Amino acid sequence: MGQKVNVLYIDDEDNNLNSFKASLRKEFNVNTALNAKQGLEMVREFEYQVVIADQRMPEMTGVEFFEKLIQVNPLPIRILLTGYSDIQSVIDAINKGEVHRFIDKPWNIEQIKNAVRNAGEIYFTRKELAYKNEKLHKVHSEMNQFVYSLSHELRGPLMSISGISKLAKLEVNDPDILEYFNMIDLATHKLDNFIYKMLDFYRSTKIDNKFTKIDVAHLLEQQYAAYQEKWDLSEIDVQMNVVQEQEFYSDDAKLRVIVNNLFSNAYNFQKQHEKDKKISLSITVKNDGCTILCIDNGIGIDEKYQKEVFNLFQRATQQNVGSGIGLYMVKESVEQLSGEIELSSALNEGTKVKVSLPHIV
Fold it and tell me: Taking every annotated instance into account, which residue ranges of this chain make up the domain Histidine kinase (predicted)?
């Protein structure tokens, strides 16, 4: 422990105070008070890590003093000096004074020193933890602001670039210049997709659950419209199915992360020259919860990679598509919603992913 512990000892007997201070003054910063009232005033004016009080004091017992101390300053670690016969005082100290330790009288100096050392370590550890929690809260708040900026300040200009590029292509007939604009479109699309993935990553891993009533059909309808705008699905037989027999409460954002990444993987890992491409995405809500099932006939996943595909940045193919975080985000979202995920796949045959989510009561 790098710094000296500040100790306050309250006792109505001068001899005890003097003896205590003389015995501990070299190792600790010791102050004393003759009564509880004086002790409370001293705690208001100075930071003590450890406060020790005798139980038997005339105006106020040690337990009563600690009750008031908690109201004035709950941070110091509290130690009560009492006798074996004061069993009720011990019980009261636990229930009312939140005492860290009891030391029976007559006390032993080494016992007191060890108790103060341990109490000081607890105090400084708690203080450091509180400081780190405060910093963590600040970082979390700043991260929320950053994600907001990522969504609005970056995606806005990207959409403007894409829109201007599309307008410019309407005015140009030269194939070489058109190719340049196509390259711009491809680059902006890749960057926007990466930003979208980062937003999904944040939603799935950093934001606490916010449960609302989910209209599954409406959710899937919205997402499919977004897929049609984002990708050319004309060569894929896409089947979307919804069965919702009762109300379902879940986190809308995390549910969309699950659905989006399952469909994205199914799309990105289709066989390039396959004529009969298929993706089936179904969501069923029944008494036993919600089941999301995504099936494709794409390139599949080699068995040796199937246990690793839910790890961050893990890819199961050398194809230059995907970011390696899609299934990781699915797994994180599923776990935060207390659900389960199953994957079965065969190389060159396709992949099936089943997500089961419980009802939130």
Answer: 149-361
pLDDT (tens digit per residue) in 308-334: 777 765 555 555 455 567 788 889 899
Give the count of domains, the chain. Answer: 2
The residue ranges of DSSP E strands in the chain, in sequence order, are 6-10, 29-33, 50-54, 77-82, 101-104, 211-213, 236-244, 249-251, 277-286, 289-296, 340-346, 350-357
Domain of 243, in residue numbers: 210-357
In the structure encoding, which two tokens stand for residue 188, read together? 């902006």
Burial class (CB in 10 A: 0-12, 13-18, 19+), 70: middle
What does the pLDDT read at residue 87?
A: 62
Domain annotation covers residue 183:
no
Do 350 and 217 share a structural domain? yes
Amino acid found at 102: F
101 and 219 fall within a common domain: no
3-state class (DSSP) for residue 191 = helix
CA dihedral 131, 132, 134, 138 (to 10 degrees): 140
Mean pLDDT value of segment 44-62: 89
- What span, in angstroms and rounded, lies between the C-alpha atoms of 203 and 77? 40
Q: What's the pLDDT at 320?
A: 45
- pLDDT at residue 190 is higher than 70: yes
Last residue of a domain, one of 73, 107, 141: 107
